[in-house]
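Re: the request from the purification team.
They wanted to know what the chain is likely to look like in 3D before they choose a buffer screen. I agreed to run a prediction and write the result into the notebook, where they can find it.
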Amino acid sequence: MKKKLLSLAVASIVCSGIAEARFYIGIEGGYTGGAKDTKKHNAQLNNVYFFIPGSSTLGDMFKDKTYTSNGTTYETEPWKGFNVALNLGSEHFFVSNYLGVRWGASVGFTEIMRDSTEKSATGSVSYTDTLGYIDAELSFDVMINFIARPDFSFGIFGGVEGDYHYMVVDDQENSITNKIESFLSKVTSRHAMDVSGRVGVSTLMGKHHRIDLTAKLPIGYVVASADNKVKIASAPVRASFNVGYKYVF
């Protein structure tokens, strides 16, 4: 009986402390970097796996790679490009607007490119690979305000995001990718699924205008295979750094 009364009391406090539950619609965009997973994973056909990238994968998104094979030197830049998305969702604040949660859904587009050079005794050849994806995302954030006034707030947030990507641009037909990774180019799927962590800062001005600075860092990705083909993959692993605007109703 005491436990039931305590639960009711806590629920009453939380409910009475809810300040607002407001929908929003917005747009965001920014820089996206990518790299091949540095960790080697064992995967068998006709199975689904959730892989966590190697610890150095994030660092590889910001540095060039050079290696030599059969007398030929290959210089490859990391994947880099942009993303843009429309999003909508709802934010819910309580404890006098100092603590809140937010969920969101978005659809957008990501394009990433990389330049590669092949150097041999007969000369050098340069290539550019381009990948483009339509993205669909679901996210959840916990928000903490350091300043919580009726017409202005400022704070931080952190959360998790699940992403689905469908490749619509695959400009690699004569690129170095197919020469070095000919096997992968035959089996890589147009479908990709991954999970990212989200951290950032957020400010609400004039009760309706929210500005977010967001970093999305990779947590893991899904690989599913069947009939000797990769059906769902995530190549390359990605991270994004975005600026977003939301109109809060």
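For the purification team: The chain has a mean pLDDT of 86.
Please add any questions underneath this entry.
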